[in-house]
Structures are given as C-alpha cells and as structure tokens.
Design goal:
Helix content is 41%, strand content 15%. The protein is of the alpha+beta class. A five-stranded mixed sheet has the order 2-1-3-4-5, with helices on both faces.
Length: 223
C-alpha cells in the first residue's frame, strides 16, 4: 500500500512549471522539474517535488544495470513510476546516440536515421555536422504524404546556420517504391546543392531510405 498515490500537487511550483514550459518550451524546466512534469504526482508521505530531487540523486549515482532497482527502492516509487523514469532515460539515450558520432562514409549515418524508413509518410531529414564531421543534430524538416514531401532550402539551412554547422547530410524515406531517386529527388538535390554553395555549407550527401536498403547520391557520384 505504500505506493498508493493521490493527486498531490504543490500549488506554486507544479502548475507554474507546466505553464512556463508551455510558454518557453521543453528546454526551460530544470531536471527535477522535468521529472515533476513526467510523474505528475507524489504520494501522501512523499510530495512530488521532494520525490523528484531524490530521483535525480539516484540517477546520478546509478548505472544502466542497477538503475531500475535503485529507483524502485525509493519511497514513493512503484513499478509504474520506476519504469516511466527508466524508459524516458533510455529513450533519450537512444535518440541522442548520434551526438558527436563521426561520419566518414555515407553508411556511417544510416544507423542513426534508419528508423525513419519505417514511417508510412515521407519524412525529410537534415543532419548538421561540424568541421570534424561530427553530428551536431538530426532533425525532421518536413513530413509529407505517402509519396512526397515539400521542402525549401530556408527550412533546411536555418538551423545549421544558427548552429555554425560546416556541413549537412539530407535524407528522406520512400515508404513505397524502389530505393532510387525520382525526378523530384533529382531536382531537390540540385536545389539544395546550389543553396549550400551560396551559404558556404558543405552538402555532403542526400540519402534515400527504404526498409531494406539505402541510396546515396555521393556513392553514385551524383553530387
């Protein structure tokens, strides 16, 4: 019964942090405030703000092997809360596994973008890299229909410019059909290449993804 929860919220911090996060974005809250947003409530003997601080301590002193057990041992944590925190940490780890990964060959980036091949709609992706060809960010530029997506160079390059990126790699998935460039793919690649040249950002590759294969413009000497 020690995991019995009630809808406890501190009147000042919890509603305020929700409102501030909606206003300022998910990067605004502190680590403990992110946990408060995620868990929503504490227990009668463990208010959510105190529980969040204890979770941070456990997170900082645990590794992947003992994290779940250490979280479960906390007063106020049960199976549901423990797995929610552990799952969030693992998802974050997976989503950011590409950070600082060095791309020397088109195939090097495939493990970090291959999951987009499973999408039923076409996703256009842009990876920004620094001068050492380390990945700075991978982001979705646009999502289209089942067979095409509309893009504009300003949407591709606005963030890489603000990040002082030295290069970009573009990619999109083909939900259906062969893993070869269409006429629209050829035209968009030419447009991106021209824009990159004007901006002084290296356009390293345009990669088409399917569930079983990929097509690299660079590998096929089409850049």
């Amino acid at each position: 019964m020690n995991d019995l929860e009630f809808n406890y919220e501190t009147k000042r911090s919890h509603p305020d942090i929700r409102e501030l996060t909606l206003k300022n974005g998910i990067g605004y809250p502190s680590d403990s405030e992110l946990l408060m947003l995620m868990l929503g409530s504490g227990t009668k003997s463990m208010p959510i703000n105190e529980l969040a601080k204890k979770i941070i301590t456990v997170m900082n002193s645990s590794n992947q092997d003992n994290l779940i057990q250490n979280l479960k041992d906390l007063k106020g944590m049960g199976i549901s809360k423990t797995l929610a925190v552990a799952a969030a940490l693992e998802l974050g780890r997976r989503k950011n596994a590409y950070l600082k990964a060095v791309i020397n060959h088109p195939s090097d980036i495939i493990p970090y973008i291959q999951h987009y091949a499973m999408e039923s709609k076409e996703h256009f992706i842009c990876a920004s890299l620094n001068g050492a060809h380390e990945i700075l960010k991978i982001r979705v530029i646009s999502v289209g229909t089942i067979d095409k997506t509309l893009i504009h160079p300003r949407e591709i390059f606005s963030d890489p410019i603000s990040e002082h990126a030295s290069a970009v790699i573009c990619s999109h998935n083909h939900p259906f059909g062969p893993c070869i460039p269409s006429k629209a793919d050829l035209e968009s690649t030419k447009t991106i290449k021209n824009a990159a040249a004007i901006l002084g950002i290296a356009f390293l590759d345009h990669i088409i993804l399917t569930k079983s294969d990929y097509f690299s413009f660079l590998e096929h000497e089409m850049l």
